[in-house]
Amino acid sequence: MDFLSDFWTLFIGKLQSPTLGFLIGGMVVAAVNSRLAIPDAIYKFIVFMLLLKVGLSGGIAIRNANLAEMLLPAAFAMIVSVLVVFIGRYTLAKLPNVKTVDAIATAGLFGAVSGSTLAAALTLLESEGLQYEAWAAALYPFMDIPALVTAIVLASVYTKKKRAAADSLSAQATLGDQASFGQKVAFSKQTSFGDQQSFDYQGVAAVLTK
User: Fold this and answer.
1) ∠ CA(157), CA(158), CA(160), 5° rounding?
2) Does any domain span residue 72?
3) What is the largest CA-CA distance in the chain?
4) Which range of residues forms the domain containing residue 118?
5) Helices and strands counted in the chain (H then E)
6) How far is CA 151 from CA 103, 145, 154, in A?
């Protein structure tokens, strides 16, 4: 019972946090098709300040950190970002009314991780008093670049295969049309030759009867 009591107390407390409140408010605004929108200048300023804070703190932490400690997290971040793109490519594309190219683009965004989202997440961890490596922000490019490159390569390969398949079908259709046209020409010649023979036979018969 103590566990459930602590859980619900903590859960209700988290529901009152500003971050979750803005998230739920945004979902409600989108659900009712409201035209409420944050001015673009305010949004850019907030994102700029978050990125500036994370960038400065991360840069200072990297200068004081042991680079050998970052190798394994950086490699893991690259692997995860690439896996997210592949998983999204073969799952999102199976959803109804979702094109494969759109699925690849969405998976690339998921694997890349938004810089503003990362900054907001790190700020939230700090506000909650949760400890994390100070150089965690430096892992952002290790996820962003591999994910975007993988998505671009997958999209290029898919479009090339689709274009090649379309060209092959077009060539087969052209050959089929040419073969059909040749058969029609041959049949037309045979019919014309038969009509000429019939005309000659009728003419000879008419002369003989005279």
Assistant:
1) 65
2) yes
3) 125
4) 38-168
5) 7, 0
6) 10, 10, 5
Q: Tally the domains of the chain.
A: 1
Q: Tens of pLDDT along 73-128?
A: 889 989 999 999 999 988 988 888 888 888 888 888 888 877 767 777 777 777 77
Pairwise CA distance, residues 162 & 144, whole Å:
27
Q: Would 182 be classed as within a structural domain? A: no
**Residue bearing tokens 């700020």:** 123
pTM of the model: 0.58
Residue the block writes with tokens 């430096």: 138
| Residue owning tokens 């700090």 | 126
58 near 119, Cβ under 8 Å? Answer: no
pLDDT tens for 39-67 read 878 877 877 777 777 667 667 777 777 77
